[in-house]
Amino acid sequence: MTVAAASTKTVALSGIAAAIIDLDGTMLDTAPDFHVAVNRTRADLDLAPLDQQTIVDFVGKGSENLIRRVLSLDYTPPEVEHHFAAALDSYQRHYQAINGTHATLYPEVIDGLQAMRDKGLRLACVTNKPIVFALALLEKAGLRQYFELVYGGDSFPKKKPDPMPLLAVCSEFDLEPAQIVAIGDSSNDAQAARAAGCRVFNVPYGYNHGEPIQDVESDGIVATLLVAARHISN
Ligand SMILES: O=C(O)COP(=O)(O)O
Ligand SMILES: [Mg+2]
Q1: pLDDT mean over 17-29
Q2: Ligand 1 atom with least separation from CA of 60
Q3: Contacts by 52-57, CB closer than 8 A, 24 or more apart
Q4: 157: how many CB neighbours lie within 10 A of its CB?
Q5: Could you tell me the distance, in angstroms and rounded to a whole number, from the CA of residue 88 to the centre of ligand 2?
Q6: What residues does ligand 1 touch, defined as CB less than 6 Å away?
Q7: Gene3D superfamilies under this entry (predicted)?
Q8: Does 154 carry a binding-site annotation?
């Protein structure tokens, strides 16, 4: 615990020209949307509803992983594969119908994004959420305008924790990875950032697969995106 606590010290980052911000668990608390859509999918399969926390611990590695984990609670691995395609289809239909309806913005998200823009930072959103859901949600929450680039979990062959989508941002912005800070709520974000050579901050309030965020190696934990902005300079 002492080692983990020591690693949470937040350093001020200089030489930063852009920020890559995660979506679920970082800008929006989408747990209630996941809860509703997953339980409608389970009802289609005659499975009992799950509590929100159980579902939230499966969020972060994309829809396919979420649905496999949700099915694995009741089915053997061959049964999971048997039901997977229909369950994913059902989930996507239910999620699309309620996307953003029950989600809420975390504190200081708008102020944080505005503060980053005021510092001249270029902003990209990189999420493991499917791109159609991500774009619709950002639009609905009034966040789309802050981002020059938005990449979803299906925008590239590989998603976070692979560095591929972050390296695509570096290339699109024509910046070195060390000039970019990734900010997210999970080890996925931190691992992708480190593998890309980017700097990384974590926020403590989202979904980290049920693990303490203090155990994730990063440049620090920031209470909100506004606090993150205060720790970043060009
Ligand atoms: O849909 C997910 O798995 C969540 O994705 P995000 O935390 O990368 O936004
Ligand atoms: Mg997240």
Answers
A1: 98
A2: 3
A3: 55/31, 56/31, 56/207, 57/207, 57/209, 57/210
A4: 7
A5: 20
A6: 22-25, 59-62, 127-129, 160
A7: HAD superfamily/HAD-like, Putative phosphatase, domain 2
A8: no
Q: Which residue has the tokens 């030489």?
A: 15
Pairing relation of β-strands 104-105 and 28-29?
antiparallel
pLDDT for res 10: 81
Given this model, what pLDDT does residue 11 score? 84
Place of tokens 């747990």: 31
Q: Encoding tokens for residue 158?
A: 């590989």
Taking CA atoms only, the protein residue closest to ligand 1 atom 1 is 129
Ligand 1 atom at shortest distance from the alpha carbon of 207: 7
Q: What is the pTM of this model?
A: 0.93
**Is 74 known to be catalytic?**
no
What are the residues facing 184 on neighbouring strands?
A: 202
Higher pLDDT, 44 or 11: 44
Ligand-binding site membership of 33 (annotated): no
What is the 29 CA–ligand 2 centroid distance (Å)?
A: 9
How far apart CA 196 and CA 162 sit, in angstroms, is 8
In CATH, which of 3.30.930.10, 3.90.1310.10, 2.60.210.10, 3.40.50.1000 is domain 2-30+103-230? 3.40.50.1000
| Residue bearing the CA closest to ligand 1, atom 4 | 60
Residue 5 has pLDDT above 90, yes or no: no
- Owner of token pair 């403590």: 204
Q: How far, in Å, CA of 140 to CA of 79, rounded?
A: 37
Three-state SS at 202 = strand
pLDDT at 87 over 50: yes
